[in-house]
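Case study.
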Amino acid sequence: MSSSTFGRLFSVTTFGESHGEAVGAIVDGAPPGHAISVEAIQYQLDRRRPGQSAVTTQRKESDTIHVLSGLFEGKTTGTPICLIAYNEDARSQDYEKLKQVYRPGHADMTYAAKYGIRDYRGSGRASGRETLGRVAAGAIARQILAPLGPDIVAGTVQVADVRADQRDWAEAEKNSVRCPDKSAAADMEKVILAAREDHDSVGGVVEIVARGVPAGWGDPTMEKLDAEIARAMLSIPAIKGVEIGDGFAGALLRGSQSNDAMGAGPGGFLTNHQGGILGGISTGQDIVVRIAVKPASSIAKAQQTVDVSGQPVEIKIEGRHDPCICPRVVPVAEAMMALVLVNAWLRQRALRGDVY
Amino acid sequence: MSSSTFGRLFSVTTFGESHGEAVGAIVDGAPPGHAISVEAIQYQLDRRRPGQSAVTTQRKESDTIHVLSGLFEGKTTGTPICLIAYNEDARSQDYEKLKQVYRPGHADMTYAAKYGIRDYRGSGRASGRETLGRVAAGAIARQILAPLGPDIVAGTVQVADVRADQRDWAEAEKNSVRCPDKSAAADMEKVILAAREDHDSVGGVVEIVARGVPAGWGDPTMEKLDAEIARAMLSIPAIKGVEIGDGFAGALLRGSQSNDAMGAGPGGFLTNHQGGILGGISTGQDIVVRIAVKPASSIAKAQQTVDVSGQPVEIKIEGRHDPCICPRVVPVAEAMMALVLVNAWLRQRALRGDVY
Amino acid sequence: MSSSTFGRLFSVTTFGESHGEAVGAIVDGAPPGHAISVEAIQYQLDRRRPGQSAVTTQRKESDTIHVLSGLFEGKTTGTPICLIAYNEDARSQDYEKLKQVYRPGHADMTYAAKYGIRDYRGSGRASGRETLGRVAAGAIARQILAPLGPDIVAGTVQVADVRADQRDWAEAEKNSVRCPDKSAAADMEKVILAAREDHDSVGGVVEIVARGVPAGWGDPTMEKLDAEIARAMLSIPAIKGVEIGDGFAGALLRGSQSNDAMGAGPGGFLTNHQGGILGGISTGQDIVVRIAVKPASSIAKAQQTVDVSGQPVEIKIEGRHDPCICPRVVPVAEAMMALVLVNAWLRQRALRGDVY
Amino acid sequence: MSSSTFGRLFSVTTFGESHGEAVGAIVDGAPPGHAISVEAIQYQLDRRRPGQSAVTTQRKESDTIHVLSGLFEGKTTGTPICLIAYNEDARSQDYEKLKQVYRPGHADMTYAAKYGIRDYRGSGRASGRETLGRVAAGAIARQILAPLGPDIVAGTVQVADVRADQRDWAEAEKNSVRCPDKSAAADMEKVILAAREDHDSVGGVVEIVARGVPAGWGDPTMEKLDAEIARAMLSIPAIKGVEIGDGFAGALLRGSQSNDAMGAGPGGFLTNHQGGILGGISTGQDIVVRIAVKPASSIAKAQQTVDVSGQPVEIKIEGRHDPCICPRVVPVAEAMMALVLVNAWLRQRALRGDVY
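After joint prediction, the assembly is written out as follows.
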């Protein structure tokens, strides 16, 4: 089943295992004639790459992207774009000892239950490395969307109990945790390094904002724009929740507070409690999304688990891991948002080519 | 675009406007030979029906379901099942005055932006009435799933700032708010009626638990089980957030707490912080989901808005509305969970018919 | 599985059994704002209706179409359109005796093999009656396409060994076999009535021509325009072959004959051996398609077959049947062509809204 | 749009241009635990490879397949399988002169009309080279299907007016035209070489037979097994027609001849006029399909055409071309049949896992 595919018009299919030959994606359905910079793809991959800073894993991968098809003289041709990065620093022997054990918080047990066979090397397909293809595809989507208006920013807004008060998105790219609040960023970094010190990891929250999305994108029932965003976000490894606008906090409001009054504001709205989406369709305001990022599963601390035969064992996961994956989730979440939006745009253009 | 369809194997397409001739759904892909009770479908529709209690709208609809195809001698034949309920108490004249106005919190403005035309009578397709077809289809899915083990319960666990401490699911069906905590239920009812008194509405949180789901259901990347659940839940009107297991609260944990240790517990797990899903695949534990329900948009209180030409106007939405939609969201959320699960089961059976 | 759905953008899902409550279709994805005449839908259904002439079945059905949703003030709203016709003259008792027998040439045995259960009344879902929903949906597609240029005609060009020499499409609607050659039509009618006299049936060939389709519609690899047409045509009951342009006769040509030279002709082409499609994409010329229609399966003549337990029996199929289904295939094939084209148009508009 | 994808459960997406970096395919949805021989994939590619014999193009490509993901210890893991072959003998300079000209019979003009941009080197994506990924994916499908019974054979049964009388499938692999009739094969080869001598090409007919397919595969309405086969076959470059069983010749029969009587034959059928499919579902008999293959478009003979500005020009297509593509269509058609069947099997297993 094409369960590795996202998007029905601009369709992205990722492939590859963490310790296989390569990882990548096929983009099918990119509209023709759009100029694509391979450097801009590489830039996004570099933001996702391991080994960027003290708070990320030290695995060494250049993640150099190769575009094998679908571009001609620097432009999309409308045919499938094959994006590939060959794996370099795959130390599969690190994983040999994990072959017989189900790591807590990992998908080892569930892959075994589902498939009856699993590539245990570096989590195989369940590795965060699968997201490389998403980021590359998303970088193409972003380049196509940019001239139309949409612009996507994201950052870490919470790590453990440290919360960002500011939303200075330019700042977010300047610190190792990608926090849009400089002062909170410093505290977040401390919390992360303290967790690593304890051979442990921490969770957090990432916020994604899509600005400049015109009103009228998204579908109204089963494929609401927020439903597609939710699906996109929860398809990212380690994400356990998503909220739009006020989200869960909105439960505390009354309708008279939560309903965004209209008047002389941008696009007519005076507030944005609904996060830029009403009835599954964009309002023209900022689309505001937050996602819950669980603490990284791979920790060096001793944990109680079972082996493949069900016998209890203790495990310490050695190796090169992220003590907090929020900073690396940021470019992935942006990419997924871009994939949702480029599809919404194409769908709206199919429906109403007269006005798009 | 088939944006009114949910599910690729057990596919449900809803149709119908709030004040049109009828609402309903087509179920395509139900496996053949399963006994289906029409009474059991009606039972679920009655749980969703308006006018059940003091805390729901007083619109009068019998919501009698008609099965026009796909069943033969009480069993599924594998062909499309057409489920239909004719509208009865559609007072379209109530809406004539709203024709020129965008109601705050409603999809009026976004439908206009998207389609350039809208059926303004009773919110047309954006009405909660669209969910009738989902509940009917979900009732079929539940009957097919039941013999396999999965059983779905849900209830209102928060209204405004009143939270349920208990999870007594049998209790949930006994009170008007469908709260699994008898004492919290009474407080919730008070909060809702107070809001109605103020011509206002309140939001809340609904929790859905799927019990008895075998390990191994769901797909690992773009169509993770939790991603599909998230999409299903945010496709329900008025839902603004979803979380699985600890969800957003998990951001406060460390990996050593959040990782569910394995040992001699049911299915091997000692805790269930992950909400029964790892790597997008079911673990065999309870699948625990919570959704944020925004305050109902239709309130009689005066609100500031604009008309279709952008001129500011004040609006009071008279009519028959729900001051809190949580109780009526409960059966809809259960239905959507059932649709996710029946698809996951069929997909897993396609993949590994040898063990299913 | 949504195997009753045709089209990914303009999606049509049919439902209903021959002797159930109703037959019909849901159209999801119709672009908004298009005026739709219900009379024009009914006109197409009347062309498909039983009992039109001496050469069709005498079953009496008014086939009155009801549009339950998706139109507002005579226009599409972009939401699902539910089209339904209630069954009237369903004499299920005629079929009671066929319950235990597999009729030769029918899908009785294969439905049993596939589903393990079957609605044997009037062939259930395998009845030609299933095509009613297709014709109704196609009539909507045609009304949307018409202002864009495409116009679809079709007719019976062969019955048994009688072949049409002319392609006078206006004539096709004037004779009972829908043959675009008046003189051949008379011979075809004789051949059909002679077959009925013998309690037998005859096959034929139907030709469909889509005129006014712009160059550039269709996709180049897996979803070539001709591949979609082929799928559409072979999804019609009793169709056993399809060819585009010269089709099978083209095997006898050399490349220098078969390649359509370009010059000062319409759209640049001097001939149309390729039937208006090159590389899966429309050339702007007429799209010319022929389909092989097998002799109707239901014949009153004695036939050798087996019952559900595998015992040989002799069968004579009494009842009201078509001795040649070509005339009634014509509107169905036109409808399927319209569904292919409306999807191709929407897809092309998604891809290149700038020029469409 | 994912128009480069075939199959909804076992999904194959091809990528790559004739003169780009590589061609290949992603297979998503292969069921886990099936042993796959890479040599068996290579064997099928070698059957499709250019330069096999005097009657095929002399382009030199080793077409060595690389499997970059989805296999582990020789077995499918259920995750996407990336299949890739790097292009070697791409002489793009041959095509520089064709940049400004629309070759007759080719997709040059239609690609330009559709996309407004085209990779003119070696036909880009419209090249027969795109089928490499199909054959590789089909080779995996065949290995999965083989233990279940289905076995696919094919051969050239007509070239120009030379027709095969025999169906000796073992013989088909022994001659250069892949004809299952040794004596006809010699005549076919003469006809092809004569056409090449004249700087021209010839067309033909290929027959594909799937043996050992159980009764009950395929869906009954929009996705009939024959409709899926038709779509699959017409998605292959240069195919202009398809017929099942008697196909167009069946138009000449009466129902009493065309209806396959049942009795003591294999699976109960005494004849196979219907080609193994009734009502869109397999009968358990051989599935018999024939496809019309047009004369190869690339010929060295002078042809009249226009350039991109619409000016008439004469063209002679130099280079390395196939004078008859039937022999190379054979493995591609077999592969497409395998892709249809593996999907039908998985769908049937989803629907009725109890009996599969």
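Observations recorded in class. The radius of gyration of chain C is 21 Å. Chain C has nine helices and 16 strands. We will return to this complex in the next lecture.
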